[in-house]
Amino acid sequence: MTVTSASADAPSRRSEPRLGHRLEHPDREAEARQPFYRRFPVWFPFAVYGLSRIWVLIAGILLARSQIPLPIGTANIRIFYPSPESPGYWTVMSGWDGQWYRVIAEHGYPAVLPRAGWGGIDMNPWAFFPVFPMTVGAIMKVTGLPFEIVGPLLSTLLGFVAMHLLFKLVDQAVGRWEAIVAVTATSFYIASAAFSASYTESAALLLVVTVMLLLRARRYAWVVVALLALSLTRNVVVAMVPVIIAHAVVRWRQHDEGEHPVRFRWGMAALAAYAAALTFLWPTIVSIGTDTPDAYNQTMLAWNIETKLKLYLWWGLLYDYWGIAGQVLGVLGVAGFTWFMLSKNSWRWGPEIWGWAGAYPAYLLLVTSTTPSRVRYAMLAFPFTLVIAWFLKLPWWRRYRYWLLLGIVLLGAAQMWYWLQHYLVIENLTDDLYP
């Protein structure tokens, strides 16, 4: 098997809508001579993501009116910063995990781990990685603006950069149509409102895409830096190990290891080992910072999150929802995706995207819990949008793919409203819903 980044053969123009052909087969040399802001790979992702942010703003303003008052001592949820009924957009977008990031931004991490009534370690800020909240805290000190403004704004702005780089990555590695779908479907994903909240999704997507772009450019020293930043942003850096291995294997298969192939192989092995080792960086920092062995794992237990393989939880979830039929469908779904990953349809994504497409979903199944947050975690699985792009270009509906993509946007907008209303806005405390 050889993973390449070559684009698929272009279909006959006769079977293409004129606009589709013009968009998907650009004169890249002429495009590069245009002013930066007039280039399609620049303005298109900005425009699509900006449109989705306007929708989040409208939905957030309207739905925030239904949020209940949240005083300190509220049952079923930890409240550090009380808010009144109908607190407004900015407060809603800084709720849930955003409260923990605000504690870190304003006060840092505690030197002593708090204890719960039963004697175990209680929920505390060490469960949350530092890059996003510490950056917010630095901006707050410079500007004097409150967390409720800086957190959502920073997340939104990082999302603009992430979408631009996502378009660039997919456009270079796969093609223009796939880049259009990737940015559109990601911007209008059901949980994409988190890109505008005080969460780490925007920063994590930005760093994931940056690592892949740097690997493709063979700027390995900068890959080291980007991996370090990713490891202190979200606990997903281990999923980069297969990405690095796929990159190295393809260069080896293509006899493209440079003048010193042995040195290259050892370098790639060291880079993969480095990415794996970074998984333990934050837990080590937590133990040192609190002078408590295994402090990170004990902290996560306060959220009933165990640091062990969790595939059995997903297996049980399928049975709880749909019985044996759900488990059968789950197996068939994994088998179908595995088949797709081993077909030429995915090989053309390039080794970096291909590696992430396999590694990150496997990470979600093996490592993450079956909480409602799983929908938000899936935002980083952007290669699934490339499956959508392939599906929409099948012969049966190729001519209507832009109308179908518009349908995905409208469906996504409705789902975004639902996710905001039921997972971010707190209308009652009877549901066990955590975003």
Q: How are the elements arranged and paired?
A:
Blueprint: H1 18-24, H2 28-33, H3 40-63, H4 89-92, H5 97-107, H6 131-143, H7 147-173, H8 176-187, H9 201-217, H10 220-231, H11 240-253, H12 261-277, H13 281-290, H14 295-301, H15 311-341, H16 344-347, H17 351-367, H18 373-377, H19 384-392, H20 401-424
Helix pairs in contact: 3-7, 3-8, 3-20, 5-6, 6-7, 7-8, 7-9, 8-19, 9-10, 9-11, 11-12, 11-17, 15-17
The number of distinct β-strands equals: 0
Task: Report on the biggest sheet.
Answer: none
* End-to-end CA span: 39 Å
- Percent strand: under 5%
- Structural class given helices, strands, pairing? mainly alpha
> What value does the average pLDDT take?
90
SSE succession: HHHHHHHHHHHHHHHHHHHH
* Envelope shape: globular
Which value, in Å, is the CA radius of gyration? Answer: 22 Å
SS element count, helices: 20
Uncertain segments of ≥5 residues (pLDDT<50)? 1-10
Can you give the helix content as a percent range? 55-70%
